[in-house]
Write a structure and sequence with these properties.
Number of domains: 3
Low-confidence stretches: none
Strand order of the largest sheet: 2-6-7-10-1-11-12-13-14
Number of helices: 16
Shape: elongated
Strand content: 15-25%
Bound molecules: adenosine-5'-diphosphate, zinc ion, magnesium ion
Helix content: 40-55%
């Protein structure tokens, strides 16, 4: 049985979040306006106008290039890419051909359940260009064009054919989206068309001993313009299956072709054959001087923030979080900031504890890990659950990191347990009060006074003679019922372990 390896490369367009368009002063990204309002002679492609490159777009592009470990060109230029289509009134797109702003980079990805656990994806190049207008079809069969989008700044990122599975492309695209958000260069929302992707795929046959059969890659299929992670993954899976069949029939693709993803049918369909660079008759844009990028690259290097991959590792090491929790937290920069502020309070608290004073690093680290487990549990499952019940979000909650840290301390010191903790957290979400006050107001403090608890236990035992008798007769599972009744009586304030022990002792004495 021959084995086929999938060879995949991506071409990704990301809209840059600038105020204005790439070569004119029209507002970019406004979606709540009438069609064809944010337009001018330049982005409508009138003759005799002069395009002026958007400096912010160039800075964003350079920043993105740096984040992808690219070399930033000292000198770059724009070119005209010629083609006829109604969404492009000039009949050429201003793009970059042989001197892109960035080239020769890479992005490392982790593939937790993949055949290979990590991969370095080469970035061939990244260049700036303008988006085309948007065409849409009316009910009576007309095609209309909205030029509001025409001229929106884009960065196109081309990868090497370094992916070996559809899953790897999905992880890469998600990481790329996150990087764009960390850099603030784009919201990179695929559903809104901020991030669009063409995927190229071919197969390569392996010998039975795993060595590669033939040194070169084979003709590829390019699947155009997909705007959801799922589409990319599904389209690639479909295409790999289709090509595998062709190979097995000894009829592998002989030329490269272009296909489109039909989501309704869940298939790819052949489109016009692939035009190559020659058909676009690229030539230098004569109206725009070359870009000198040395100074901008130096400035942008200083502005480069900590990227998600580095932040995950740092948060894992600094706070003792599990990597999977650090990953989930870092996927949302606001959540990550909230978490970091929470930990800085918690570490200050640990530092202030007399019993930890002068303690060895290891003891301190152990305590920190305990807190980290509490923070992840309460933040990623309980608080996240309560927020989604209320359809609110970490950006809008009334809980400050200080109050959340105080809450975690109350849990850690057993002043609150899971049940009372949940009540306090609910109140914190409702009115933003601090947890200690809520706990006192609602008398939710953990009942660790043995005398008080003993009274409740006695009450419960005498109120349930039947269950007690059954327990004595051997139905040991009724202990859980009795613990539950004590919890109910105390509205969750009883310390569970203490309750259990006390019940066991009293039941034994009752015998
Ligand atoms: P094109 O002829 O379409 O311009 P390029 O060499 O410019 O091809 O590559 C375009 C994209 O296709 C890149 O992302 C690249 O990694 C990918 N690619 C190139 N050759 C192959 C191949 N044989 N199989 C799969 N992907 C490929
Ligand atoms: Zn304009
Ligand atoms: Mg190409």
């Amino acid at each position: 049985m021959p084995i086929y390896e999938s060879i995949i490369g991506l071409e990704i367009h990301i809209q840059l979040k600038t105020k204005t368009k790439m070569f004119c002063g029209c507002s970019a990204h406004e979606t709540n306006v009438q069609p064809n309002t944010n337009v001018c002679a330049i982005c409508l492609g009138q003759p005799g106008v002069l395009p002026v490159p958007n400096e912010q777009a160039i800075r964003f592009g350079v920043l993105m290039g740096l984040a992808l470990n690219c070399t930033i060109a000292e000198r770059s230029k724009f070119d005209r890419k010629n083609y006829f289509y109604p969404d492009l009134p000039k009949a050429y797109q201003i793009s970059q051909f042989d001197m892109p702003i960035a080239s020769n980079g890479f992005l490392d990805i982790e593939i937790p359940n993949g055949e290979r656990k990590q991969a370095r994806i080469g970035i061939t190049r990244a260049h700036l260009e303008e988006d085309a207008a948007k065409s849409f079809h009316t009910e009576n069969g007309k095609t209309c064009v909205d030029f509001n989008r025409g001229g929106t700044p884009l960065i196109e990122i081309v990868t090497e054919p370094d992916f070996r599975s559809p899953q790897e492309t999905k992880i890469f695209l998600q990481e790329l989206r996150l990087i764009a958000r960390y850099l603030g260069v784009s919201d990179a929302d695929m559903e809104k068309g901020h991030l669009r992707c063409d995927a190229n795929v071919s197969l390569r046959k392996h010998n039975e001993d795993g060595t590669v059969f033939g040194a070169t890659f084979n003709p590829k299929t390019e699947i155009k313009n997909m705007n959801s992670f799922r589409h990319v993954e599904r389209a690639l899976e479909y295409e790999i299956e289709r090509q595998t069949q062709l190979w097995e029939e000894e009829n592998p693709p002989k030329t490269s072709t272009t296909r489109g993803w039909n989501d309704a049918k869940q298939t790819t369909e052949e489109q016009r054959s692939k035009e190559d660079a020659a058909d676009y008759r690229y030539f230098p844009e004569p109206d725009i001087p070359a870009l000198e990028l040395v100074d901008i690259a130096e400035e942008m290097k200083k502005e480069l923030p900590e990227l998600p991959a580095a932040r995950r590792i740092r948060m894992q090491q600094e706070y003792g979080l599990k990597l999977s929790d650090a990953r989930q937290i870092c996927d949302d920069p606001t959540l990550a900031n909230f978490t970091e502020q929470t930990f800085s309070e918690l570490i200050a608290w640990l530092d202030s504890l007399p019993e930890l004073e002068g303690s060895e690093g290891e003891v301190f680290e152990k305590e920190k890990e305990k807190l980290a487990r509490l923070v992840s549990g309460w933040l990623l499952s309980k608080l996240a659950g309560l927020m989604s019940e209320r359809s609110i979000d970490i950006r809008t909650i009334k809980i400050t990191p200080e109050n959340f840290a105080e809450f975690i301390v109350l849990i850690a010191t057993k002043k609150l347990n899971n049940a009372t903790g949940l009540k306090v957290l609910n109140s914190m979400l409702d009115d933003g009060n601090d947890p200690t006050h809520i706990m006192e107001d609602q008398q939710l403090g953990q009942m660790d006074d043995a005398g008080e608890l003993a009274e409740v236990v006695d009450r419960v035992l005498s109120a349930h003679p039947v269950e007690v008798a059954r327990y004595q007769a051997g139905e040991e599972q009724l202990l859980t019922f009795l613990i539950g009744m004590v919890m109910k009586e105390t509205e969750g304030a009883a310390e569970p372990a203490l309750t259990r022990n006390m019940l066991l002792v009293k039941l034994k004495n009752l015998k």
